[in-house]
Model the fold of this input.
Amino acid sequence: MTGAPRYLHRALATAVVFAFASLLLTPALHARFTLEQVMSSPFPSELTAAEHSPRMAWVFNAKGVRNIWAADSPSFTARQVTHYSADDGLPLASVRLTPDGRTIVYVRGSETNKKGEVADPTSNVQQPHQEVWAVDVDKGEPRLLGTMECDEEGCEDVQLSPDGQRAVWAGAKGQLWIAPVSGAEKARQLTYVRGENSSPRWSPDGKRIAFRSNRGDHSYVAVHEFGSDTLRYVAPSADRDSLPRWSPDGAKIAFVRVHGAERGLPIIPVRPQPWAIWVADAAALNAREIWHSNDDANGSFPNLVEEEAFQFAAGDRVIFASEQDGWAHLYSISASGGKATPLTPGQFEFEDVALSADKKSAIYTSNQDDIDRRHVWRVPVAGGTPQPLSRGETIEWAPLETGDGKFVVCLGSTATSPAMPYFLTAQARQMIAKEALPADFPGAELVTPKQVLFKSEDGLEIHGQLFVPPGRTTPGPALIFTHGGSMRQMMLGFHNMGYYHNAYAENQYLASLGYVVLSVNYRTGIMYGRAFRMAPNTGWRGGTEYQDVVAGAKYLRSLAYVDAKKIGLWGGSYGGYLTAMGLARNSDLFAAGVDLHGVHEWWSEARHWAPTLGEDAPDLAQAKKLAFESSPISTIAQWRSPVLLIQGDDDRNVPFDQTVDLVQRLRAQKTPLETIVFPDEIHDFLLWRSWVRAYEAAADFFDRVLKRGEKIGVPN
Done:
């Protein structure tokens, strides 16, 4: 492993020369704070509220130390509930409050990889497990309920019974497991069911559990009734059924139906994925369709929308998401059928949604009237004019109403203040747990990025956020940042995802070092409409989104305070792919790059997430050729600019062999190269110290190449 030599002893002569040169630089080129400081704020997630109590809870990740906190309305005085003390790489997820608010159930540890291994970036000799825990808020002593060890990213889904006495989850062997929240008995397998079983949902009376049973090319909604030896299926078919939802009175079950798999289809064309909403009688389990989508591309199932967007609400109405008008919007429909009512019409998109305590309104976030931010809105589920609950130069996400129906809480940030929990009032939002913010967090030293618009060669308008160091007037180095996903949107402030909250902090740190940074929201990203997100010939089908990165470089070149010969680029995952594309196709534009766990060869990546893709496809050879031509390795002979490659070798999103293969190719053609490898670390680094080391190395790499003109070595 080759690391950045920031921590190595340097020759005295070099130090003297650099020290003298630094005296000639303007103050704007000196870091005004450390990377650790700007990454020190505790990132909140997993916000939840008790159903029959004014209590809320969330997770704080403070420098890798993850703990659950709670607060009660109306004072919202925060208190720490758990007391873990190490940056140990054990995430907390699926946080649930019992209806009375007295107990919190949560999952600790990562999902498993394909070998059934829970991630352990600390390289402990003892094998870790993904476990379900419970803790009484007043006592703060966690008790183990059982193991989970689910096998997909974000698959943690603990569901509590209506009385709060039992927890059920999808766990090992693709089965459902159940345990008393008291911990009096060990978790047991609920029942044996063929296939991979997930998405359990309790009936309102707590006597039944509906869930999805995935059989590969088709899936069912199944119902387990306590005391019965027989499992029942809801209107079984040759299609894919999912997302079972009970009506508030328990008389009905709504679910989604998508067409089953079909063999022998071409790979390259992007086909519409029509879908429908069905409602079943919960006793007889006979079902009928109440709504179906259009058959065109806009009618495709909105896979990006969170499961919370499909719910049974009050008034016997079902709320759901659709892109039928080209934008991701909320709709509602009577459970008996009829015409769907648009709840959020307009040229914007919603993201998070939750029902109010009385289930009569939807509380959601969208970029309405503020396209590069998010704000909280409320709309009746029966339809009406949405009302804004927050506005201004702030960002909000994950809104909920407290169980007493008196307050809306959310997570939020600004351009210079990091993510924190808030409660909303008619006048403003109020921060919760302000005392958890580090005293030396450098909010006053951060820059406010500017929204910029520029056009790609084919005329598509691209949004970006421009970070300009204070006082910058003369030409100097600049960087382009490309996010991962790719279905993400970077915003004009600290991000709502931990991964990009860190990336935003890094961009602020780079700006403090004197770099102009342009974050590019290239096509295939969200919140600008489906036509933008599903732009033709992107990804492995042509990589046309790369021209948006080139357009960003040309925009930077047009700025008087940017040195056109000192433009670098960096990004992770899909952003790593675009970084590699920039270096492989335009080393004339990009003088250096930092590529974190990027994709470099599309076909093997596609086989990773879809191993049976195209086995009998008529255009298999053409697809392989197109995927190769859309990959950085297709033009690797043009790659001359130095690169720093960073990845963990237990990456569950982008296989580590993407970095292994690229290193050998670059080594063979003598391309300047450095690498940092984190043994046993995953894609979204679990250790805070991994993030700090990676981002410090990235900044140091750019300093050495773009500022000091150092020559990066070629590995043997």
Notes: Residues 541 and 626 are 6 Å apart (CA to CA). The chain has a mean pLDDT of 93. The chain has ten helices and 40 strands.
